[in-house]
Amino acid sequence: MSPPASARVAAAHPAFVERATGRELDDWLSYFEPDAVVLTGTESARRATSALRRVTDAGTIVFDPNGHDPVRGPRRVDGVEFVFAPTLADLDDVPETGPAYVLSGLLSLDVDRAALSTALAGLDEYRAALEQGSDTDGLVHLSTGLPEGYAREWDGLSVVGAGAEAGVGDRPLVAFDCRPDGLVLSNTLKPSRLGLRALDGVGDTRARRLREAGYGSREAIAAADPTELAAVDGLGESSTERIVESASAVVDGRVVRRSDAPLPADDPVFVDIETDGLSPTITWLVGVLDGTPPDGTYRSFVQRDPDDPGGAIREFLSWYDAEADGRPVVAYNGWRFDFQVLGDHVVEHCPELEPIWDAMDRFDPYRWAVEQDNAVLPGRTNKLEDVAAALGHESAGTGLTGAAVARVYRAWMDDRSPETEPDWDRFETYCEDDVRALATIWTALDESGRVVSATSTDAGDGTTQGTLSDW
């Protein structure tokens, strides 16, 4: 399946751009690989604009809505129609019909703390300018005056926040994948994951001291003599060892083992689930990979009927009991989401299968590597997709996230009509991509120095809820 066309817009506040080092700016842009970069905030940002033009290539649009001579008017960006509108007058260039994205800083939130209410500041003037010559159908309005995560319909006007304070402090930097069908998918990265600060145990102070000592890149630290590195002010032997391990993992794209803690001995079954949200009422898709990342057999257990919330789980557990009994079931961040949700839904919807679930050996590579400190993972973050990509996994490029999939299924639950029916094949491909990514991580852990376990690895069920956007 070919991934849908999309244009990626990265957003950052000028304060981030102006304080970031050149390496951090390069790191940010190489992580997101945007087609356009937009500066948020409410004032002209000449210094930030100049800094961005120095580090972006000629084909990348740099847009400061408050600038002296900003980009304006219609642009086709990687096959997607945009209108850059720094002023209300520029809304004259909005096409009469969509699909298209209108990018501006003209809309912001007006919060009434006494009344505990919000309004969209600038909406009346904005709508009046639009109504002079365009329909609002098919248009998505991205505003740098609104926070990332804001998405609302205002009397037919589809408004999305473009990250008003992206990168301020440690607020996440954000990039938006804008698709021709009007779907906007967000990707985030905290500034603390850029440059030297991406390394375990390195904050602002240590990053500065390392740079002053001549270790200005992750590559330099990975290649450093540990004894010389330990002499840097504020570092010791144990800190140095951890920092070098982290740098080696990121630079070399490999897992660095920190202990001889065992992995499960038997061949695993890799699992990922899709639900209807953060407080799920249904597990409607259980994706299973049996075998290696490239060649294993993938199976989907799908429940298209929301009125039978236990259907997918019943099919999965019945298959497991017949075909994979006794093998460990592996889920990434499983103890914070997948295992917790599956366990709750087994009890609620198919209690007759509790003995199968209770006897199952479950293993979470994220908990084992990160929380129990058994290995350093190579991703810029410890998200599944970042770690797998660093290990060479090639994404299927569905353009989906867990949160987006959940939203679509909730719409299907509310209105089972042809207009809201999910693209089942695409969602199954998304889930398959995740379990193959998981298998890639498992293989790397296994090859990094396996010690066979003769005992169960079931870590219990005392966990906290994760978030779909994180994993």
Automatic annotation (TrEMBL):
SUPFAM superfamilies reported in the protein's UniProt record: Rad51 N-terminal domain-like, Ribonuclease H-like
Record-annotated YprB ribonuclease H-like domain positions: 269-444
GO molecular function, one term: nucleotide binding
Protein's UniProt name: RecB family nuclease, putative, TM0106 family
